[in-house]
Amino acid sequence: MTIYDATLEALESDSTIQAAWRDASPGDRSLLLTMLERGVGELLTVVGSANHALWSRFIAQGWMEQSLSGGPNESSPVETFRVKLTELGWRAIPIVLARLRIIE
């Protein structure tokens, strides 16, 4: 199965990805494109945010992995969630973005 077919199958079989995409703001969504364009493989968000929900779904598909989390502590009053793209994610996320934009 090609990466394209596998990614489409994952999107069709996991409806929570589409729901999390709809809940994310345009700004939240744009982080993924910026990540790809700049070659930055790591992002940080707040636990419980729309990005946290979306990126957690991407982790479940193997497109991202959690790297470090932190807080709440003296330097950060909120709990943070750091993710990075996996090798598979670098190839799958462009397909995900193209497909989810069509579905919107």
Provide a descriptive summary of the structure in words.
It is a single chain. With 104 residues, the chain is an alpha+beta fold. It has one domain (3-103): Arc Repressor Mutant, subunit A, CATH 1.10.10. It has helices at 3-13, 15-23, 26-38, 50-61, 87-103, and strands spanning 42-46, 64-70, 80-85. A three-stranded antiparallel β-sheet has the order 1-3-2. Helix 1 (3-13) packs across helix 5 (87-103) and helix 2 (15-23) packs antiparallel against helix 4 (50-61). The longest helix is centred in the last third of the chain and has 17 residues, at 87-103. The radius of gyration is 14 Å and the shape is globular. The relative contact order is 0.21.
Q: What topology, given as strand order, has the largest sheet?
A: 1-3-2
Oligomer: single chain
Main sheet makeup: 3 strands, antiparallel
How far is the N terminus from the C terminus?
26 Å
Strand content: 15-25%
